[in-house]
Amino acid sequence: MATAIRPDKTDLREPRGWRRAKDRIATVLMVIAFVIVIIPLGFVLGTVIAKGASIISAQFLTSSIPYNVAPANVGGMGPAVLGTILITALATVLAVPIGILAAIYINEYGGNQFLTRLIRFMADVMTGVPSIIMGLFIFAIWVIHFGYSGLAGAFALGCLMLPLVIRSSEEMLRLVPDSLREGSYALGASKARVTLTVVLPAVLSGIVSGSLLAVARAAGETAPVLFTIFTVTTANPNVFSGANTTLAAQIFANASQPYVGAQDRGWGAALTLVVIAFILLVAARLVTGRVARVSR
Amino acid sequence: MSNSARADPAGNAASARALRRPRPLGDRVFQVLALVSGLLVLAILVLILASTTQQSTSWFSHEGISGIFSTTWSVQKDQFGALTFIYGTVITALIAVILAVPLSVGIALLLTEVVPYRWSRPIVYVVDLLAVVPSVVWGLWGILVFAPWVQPHVYAPIAAGLKGVPVLGNLFGPSTGGAVYGASLFTAGLILAVMITPIITSLSREVIATVPAIDREGAYALGATRLEMIRGVVWPHSQGGIVGAVLLGLGRAMGETIAAALVIGSSTQITSHLFTPGYSMPAVIANQFGEAFGVQRSALLGIGVLLFVLTIIVNVLARAAVARSMARQRGA
Question: FRET label pair with B44: which of A38, A125, A133, B192, CA 20 to 30 Å apart?
Fold first, then answer.
């Protein structure tokens, strides 16, 4: 054909002039957006590490909380460390099994019914409910009748964790190929048996990883525990009754103190909390890293 | 969607003998347990609304509709109007969204369109770290480090420069008293912006990732630059989903409690001056609920109900927008 493109006239080079300049500017702006975001992150982590490291020690993590006027080298955050661990652990015990069961319902039993889609949608919506609402909710249905306790705090944190565990577990369960289920059914296993011994183990590490992220989120939350544990400064190893305290609640209390000692203890508690969150995050990544390798 | 329901042994596929045999008790118990756990989500949401509304009835009857939306919040006068807090919530959330959206969408585009995969993982980790730092730590840093620094070094010069300028002077100029404050509506908006960036980024990224590769390549084949490809292909495809992501960020910003409570300045006033203290709905609950009794406690619970309803509406809209955008991509 006579209309064939003559190769010497086709320009395959990058466009020049204003078009190229606009493209470059856009790319640079994207990089700048990322830089703007890491600046505050760097400042926060830098300050927390610098101020926290100077006060944190084995003694800080175990000794009792002194009066606010006490200088920084007196006392520590022992009761808050204890409370954080106990209350978060209790919340995990409450929320994770229920969350995994709910995910099993959505993915294994629900099919495509209206109810299933509603539960999945509402679990999504529930992740956006402000954490302070969970605190008010537990206050209204539990604390008014049974008083402040670590258990009430665990309920509030559990409400916060539940939708997170459901969503991450459900996403994992969806990855299990149906051939695996069908193979087990063909061997005569009941549905519960298939779910518990074949489907769950196949994605267990993914579910554990998602749950660890939910735990990390709950451990750092202040708002849900404020009106459910009634922040005190004394250690209370009994999570089922009596007021309690957590690191996050103590930081909130100390942040508005005018005393330098109290503020410094707040920084120490903040570093402890950030380290706990990082350990959980790294653990979650390590667990998922293992899945990725196995499935490859 | 899972096909597991089709493979149910209780269905047609089972042999005649298995059909006669009833399903084991444990199997049925497990199914009921799973169903109950799923229903718990709906039950909790209904119970949140019911229990907090029931506890706040005395506020509604004490103030009436006009009282609820009045600006006076005073224990001495026994008047509890929530308008100041609603205003503060809207203003700080708007500042946060206006600042966070360009950053988040920029990072999402950087991750999906510019950097290679091995670079995108570390960037995702770093952005997610923003979400790992607890809210109270942001608040602690905001009130002890950021607010004292930003007041003399940034706010004061800006306010001095914009004093008397028509619109900008009302927003960023000094307040009627002539002062600017570190703990202010704008500081709260800034910190909220940083806190909602990870969620908007990750959702935008998910939405942008569903843009069909063939459309991208088509645009490049026509000689488009990356920016032209983004404007012509990525943007029309992911518009709806990004709106959903932004709404989700707005919901988070409205409900964010502890960081706002620490840096917002805790002053019940309605002012256009962003460098002066204000108050938001979650912040007033966090700060006052511990010592509140009677009508005040019920009013704070009522503010909680308003906040819950607001965030539920925003979240339902957001999730619906994201789900619709994703479904359209799969259908296309």
Answer: B192
